[in-house]
TrEMBL record:
Ranges of residues in domain Glycosyltransferase 2-like: 12-135
Annotated GO MF terms: transferase activity
This protein's name: Glycosyltransferase family 2 protein
Any Pfam family matching the protein: Glycos_transf_2
Record keywords, A-Z: Transferase
Keyword Transferase among UniProt keywords: yes
InterPro entries with a match to the protein in the record: Glyco_trans_2-like, Glycosyltransf_2, Nucleotide-diphossugar_trans
Length: 311
C-alpha cells in the first residue's frame, strides 16, 4: 500500500443510474452544483446502466462532465464503468436520489488528506421523505440506506468480520489506489457481488468493496461531517416493496459474507426450507402486522440463502 499523500486531491463523482426518476436525478445534480469544492477539482461521471430511454441531463454547468453507457445490467457493472473512466485520485459514489450537503466533497478531500491509511469513508445518510412516512418505517431505515451513527468519528481495520462503521454505497468516498484488489477481483469475475440488476433489490456490492479494501490493509471510517439526504419516495414505504427489499438484501448478505469466509451460519438442507418458513411465520408473528410480516420475509431470504450456499 502506497501512503504517499498528494498536495491537492481531485475527485471523480460517479452516479450509476438505471431508468432514473428525472426529478430526483435533477435534485441530485442541483446539490452537486452547489458544492463548495471548486468545479476544477472534480469531474462528474453519470453511468447510464442501459436505461430506456437513454439518460439525458443538462451538464453544461460543469466543465468536466460526461454521460457514459454501460450495457451490462447491474449496479456493480455500472460502478466499475465509472471506476475505470475516473481520472482522479478520489472517487465518490452518489446514487441518483442522493443530495450531498454543500461541503461534502470538500470535507472528503480534507479527511483523506489527514488520514493516509484510509481506503474508504462515509457518513450520515438522512431521509428526505416525499410524503409523511408511517411511524413504523424507522424499523427499516438501515435497509433503505439511511443511517445516523452519531457525532463521533470511527475508523476500523480488518477484524475478520464486517465493520460496524463501514461506509454504505450512498456517498461512499474511496481512494482510487485502494481499489486495486477489488478491480483485480472484478476482472477475474470470481465471487463477484453484482448488486441490483433490473427489478431485483439484491445488494452487497458496496459491502464487497469495503471488505476487499480492509483485507488489503486499508482502513475504513465513519465521519459525521459527511452528510447527505436520501430521497425516499412513497413507493419505497409500501409493505410489498419493503418485504421484497428485506428478502433480497438478506439473501445477498449471506452470499457476501460466505464469499469472504466470514459467514457465521451453516448451510441448511434444502428440504427443510418450507418447514422453516412455516415455523418462522409463527415465530415472527407475521400475521400480527406490517412490521412482523416484512421481517418474516427477510427471514425467508436468509433461509433461502443458507440452503443455496456453495461448499
Amino acid at each position: 500500500m502506497n501512503n504517499k499523500e498528494e498536495a491537492v486531491f481531485s475527485i471523480s463523482v460517479i452516479i450509476p443510474t438505471y431508468n432514473p426518476n428525472r426529478d430526483r436525478l435533477n435534485k441530485t445534480l442541483v446539490a452537486l452544483k452547489a458544492q463548495t469544492l471548486a468545479l476544477t477539482q472534480w469531474e462528474l461521471i453519470i453511468v447510464d446502466n442501459n436505461s430506456t430511454p437513454p439518460v439525458k441531463a443538462d451538464l453544461s454547468w460543469h466543465p468536466d462532465a460526461i454521460i457514459l453507457r454501460e450495457p451490462m445490467q447491474g449496479l456493480t457493472y455500472a460502478r466499475l464503468r465509472g471506476f475505470n473512466a475516473a481520472k482522479n485520485s478520489l472517487l465518490v459514489m452518489v446514487d441518483d436520489d442522493n443530495l450531498l450537503d454543500e461541503n461534502y466533497l470538500q470535507n472528503a478531500t480534507t479527511i483523506f488528506g489527514n488520514q493516509a491509511g484510509l481506503g474508504a469513508i462515509g457518513g450520515k445518510s438522512l431521509p428526505e421523505f416525499e410524503i409523511t412516512p408511517p411511524s413504523w418505517l424507522k424499523e427499516f431505515y438501515g435497509s433503505l440506506a439511511l443511517r445516523d451513527m452519531g457525532h463521533e468519528t470511527h475508523i476500523q481495520s480488518w477484524q475478520n468480520n464486517y465493520p460496524q462503521y463501514g461506509p454504505i454505497g450512498a456517498g461512499m468516498a474511496i481512494r482510487k489506489e485502494a481499489l486495486a484488489s477489488y478491480m483485480k477481483k472484478a476482472q477475474s469475475q470470481q465471487n463477484m457481488i453484482t448488486d441490483r440488476t433490473g427489478t431485483s433489490l439484491a445488494s452487497g456490492g458496496d459491502n464487497d468493496i469495503v471488505l476487499e479494501l480492509l483485507r488489503s490493509g486499508w482502513l475504513v471510517g465513519y465521519f459525521p461531517q459527511l452528510v447527505l439526504h436520501h430521497i425516499i419516495p412513497k413507493e419505497r414505504m409500501e409493505v410489498a416493496y419493503l418485504a421484497k427489499l428485506l428478502n433480497n438484501t438478506n439473501h445477498s448478505w449471506i452470499k457476501l459474507l460466505h464469499s469472504h469466509g466470514i459467514n457465521p451460519w451453516k448451510k441448511i438442507p434444502g428440504w427443510t426450507v418450507p418447514l422453516r418458513k412455516v415455523k418462522g411465520w409463527f415465530v415472527h408473528n407475521a400475521f400480527a402486522g406490517k412490521v412482523n410480516y416484512i421481517k418474516w420475509r427477510g427471514y425467508c431470504g436468509t433461509t433461502d440463502a443458507l440452503a443455496r450456499l456453495e461448499p
